[in-house]
Design goal:
This protein is α/β, with parallel strands linked by helices and 265 residues long. It has helices at residues 2-8, 32-46, 55-66, 74-80, 88-100, 103-118, 184-195, 211-218, and strands at 123-132, 155-163, 168-175, 200-204, 230-233, 248-252, 259-263. The protein has 8 helices and 7 strands; from the N terminus they run ααααααβββαβαβββ. It has a 7-stranded mixed β-sheet.
Length: 265
């Protein structure tokens, strides 16, 4: 069994949550499912998410962590790990609270505080993905856009900013037809404004911080000169990434609100 688990989870590291190991030798867990619940709860509390004080929200998150299923099917997943699920109507009301109380902002702040106290946020990494939705019609967010899989379903674009250890710091959601290269500057401005950060380095896929895309996002040719990107080969900068092969850089803004974007192949 251990050999099988090692093959299934090969290369999957663990986030450094600094959770102490169990110290009570008398504790007995009857099933792996209940053990999973214990670990999720401990991580939830270690990151300070319990400060949200929302039972339904915790259940929805726990269910999605265990199995990517629908809200209606979350009750089955929660039953399997020994949680008595809240009523379906309570889950629906929770979705409204998430928006009204800005849970995304609160969680982003707690994640940043964890990374700030246990690591380094001077260098961050950014990437995007698309999520397809089972919807027949488009709306303001769900749009048919570029698909690497040649799909024509409505989708959304999700951008994620992480620290050098892969710990999530900021997430953004964009229209499905929005170009990936036009998401990097908005999420960086959002991240810097939320936490009052100064200069920082951002690493992304090749082409993501392309000067043309940064100019389109940060301001056109007639905009404030301080907001226009300056760019060149990464080797021209005094930064460890300058020696990366075929790497480029582009800087938007002026200190203390500047961000240098690196594209490394």
């Amino acid at each position: 069994m251990e050999a099988g688990r090692a093959k299934i989870h090969a290369g999957q590291g663990e986030l450094a949550l600094n959770i102490p190991a169990e110290s009570d030798p008398a504790a007995v867990v009857d099933s792996s499912a209940s053990r999973l619940l214990i670990e999720i709860t401990r991580a939830w509390e270690a990151l300070g998410f319990d400060g949200l004080d929302d039972k339904a929200f915790f259940q929805l998150v726990a269910a999605r962590l265990i199995e990517p299923t629908s809200m209606l099917d979350s009750s089955r997943v929660l039953d399997d790990i020994g949680i008595r699920p809240v009523h379906r109507s309570t889950m629906k009301r929770c979705l409204a609270r998430i928006q009204q109380r800005d849970y995304r902002g609160q969680i982003a702040t707690k994640c940043f505080n964890h990374a700030w106290t246990s690591g380094d946020v001077s260098l961050v990494l950014y990437d995007v993905t698309t999520l397809y939705l089972e919807a027949e019609k488009e709306d303001a967010l769900r749009k048919v856009g570029f698909s690497k899989e040649r799909r024509v379903d409505p989708q959304i674009v999700v951008g994620l900013l992480v620290d050098r250890n892969g710990f999530p710091l900021e997430i953004g959601c964009y229209e499905g037809n929005k170009a990936e290269t036009h998401t990097i500057v908005p999420i960086m401005k959002q991240f810097q404004a939320r936490h009052g950060l100064a200069d920082m380095a951002v690493v992304a896929d090749a082409g993501m911080p392309h000067p043309d895309a940064l100019i389109h996002t940060a301001g056109g040719p007639g905009s404030d000169p301080d907001s226009r990107p300056q760019h060149g080969p990464a080797r021209a900068l005094q930064h460890p990434l300058r020696d990366a092969p075929r790497s480029t850089w582009a800087t938007v803004g002026r200190p203390p609100r500047a961000a240098t974007f690196y594209s490394v192949i």
